[in-house]
Amino acid sequence: MMEPLGEQVIKKCSGCGISLQHTAQGEPGYLPEKAWDREPVICQRCFRIKNYNEVASVAVDQDEFLRLLGQIGEKKALVIHIVDIFDFEGSLISGLQRFVGNNPVILAVNKIDLLPKVTNWNKLLNWVQKQCKEQGLRTTDIVLCSAKKNQGFDRLLDTMAAHRGDRDVYVVGATNVGKSTLINRLIRDYSDLEQELTTSRYPGTTLDMVNIPLDDGRYIVDTPGIVYPWRYSELVSRDDLGVVMPENPLKPLVYQLNEGQTLFFGGMGRFDFIKGEHQSFTCFISGRLNIHRTKLERADSLFEEHAGELLSPPTKERLEEMPEWTRHEIRIPKGSGSDIFISGLGWVKVNGDMGALVAVHVPKGVKVLQRPSLI
């Protein structure tokens, strides 16, 4: 499909209608240059759906995502909002409620396979409910799941069936929360797509929402992933992303610290125990990220001399491409039962109830906050 624009010709995907481009893989409308002259012409994302029953993630900025979200409130929809339990506050779509109107929302809390096996799931569910309430998000139901490990998926299907009726299912989420994995499971379990997608051109909608037909004539509507710049996963290179984002269950690392001690998380972040009684802190971070302990008085010089070498990843070259570090000072009240959360990097649990003064150093813009302990 082609549209004239002055002397230029804009090619559009015959699957979803988006304008095609061949310069930015992973962005909406990407088509390899070698496939540019094929007919009918479809973007790489639609090609993967049609030939492999597989959705590939695309991403858009916040403004475009909010414009797309605004359309959902006008539809009769069931919204599945996928969040990453490892980066819960970083991946939760703030303000979702005002965009979806009265449509029901199922919160799919993905990647629970990363949590220790001894996790109390009822307490975790209560924790999620409280966090949603604080964020003003009304959920019809909450499902703890792992799309990767097929945990909780039957429960998600049953919950969808209970609330869907004759609604289309809109799936929304930030980048890197496992949205594509979950949608691909929905495709395999909820729709006879192999025949459908190979014998007819499936309908698309505006920009890069993709309508995936269900057996009853309704659709799973795959929306693009929103890019939140406060997540560490949006700052690091593709190579370092595999180090920062865990793929295997987290192994909590407990450190007994005196005031005036510092923990470095590779060259990605730093945790200072500034003032307080001797107490323990538990780090929940990727097992591929080394933790280095030192004295607070030596921390600045250590980073200056060894960032990108002893303190890595990232490498020196990649470190120079990232924003300058910002210091976040946090006072932890006695008996608060708190985590210090770093979006996309993990969290540090404060085990003692004596109170403490701590500081976190991370690249400028990365979200750091104190929250009730997840575990």
UniProtKB/TrEMBL annotation:
Coiled coil: none annotated. GO terms for molecular function: GTP binding. Residues 62-229 form the CP-type G domain. CDD domains: YqeH. It comes from the Bacteria. PROSITE patterns: G_CP. It holds the Pfam family MMR_HSR1. PANTHER family: GENETIC INTERACTOR OF PROHIBITINS 3, MITOCHONDRIAL. This is CP-type G domain-containing protein. It comes from Paenibacillus uliginis N3/975. The lineage of its organism: Bacteria, Bacillati, Bacillota, Bacilli, Bacillales.
